[in-house]
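Give me the fold.
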Amino acid sequence: MNRTDRLYALVEELRACAPRRLAARELAARYEVSARTIERDISALQQAGVPIFADVGRSGGYTLDKSRTLPPLNFTPAEAVAVAITLSRAGGSPYSRSARTALHKIVAAMSADDGASARELAARIRFLAPAGDDDPASVPAVLEEAVLTRRVVRLTYVDRAGTETERDVEPVTFTASDEGWYLTAWCRKRGGRRVFRTDRVRRAALLEETAPDRAAEAVHDDLPPDYVVRPLEFV
């Protein structure tokens, strides 16, 4: 069993046994690897957002919080791959890291056979990119946190002329266009609404201050007449 298959199998094993705890040595014997390998696998799953909890000591072990996991999903392999293709295009967008962990959770919640078929189908999907072209830089996690918690954030920003400035802003929305992602915020340096291209943000630091509540509609009141703003919808 390769590591990817073992990771998915570990999630299913812990889900099936919860709330009973399974020791690393017990899991190691089951998958014919070392206890240290199991510990590294569990750490990787935890970093991916899987709600696995560990207790130390002779009677300790690993358990999974069922209340925070998905029940078995009836995704077909093709549906899972379609989701993976969409999420793979999230690079450089807000919550791109969350897109990866969401995909892990979806595939882990599929049946073992469908999950294996989905991974096999995914292996036959390719993306063409120029040689040496790196993945788009992810939006700094601090900007995601700033919008989520409505905290004032200090930006070091480079404008289109190459001028670097530092300013405190009150985040309101993320907005996407064909040219990329933008943070719309109230700029305290300029005393008004400003739009910042996220790929021009060089540094960002959350401040302790909570930003005033500003209506999202108010920051999009000067759009060109041939543009409209559509909110993200789940259905």
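The two ends are 38 Å apart (CA to CA).
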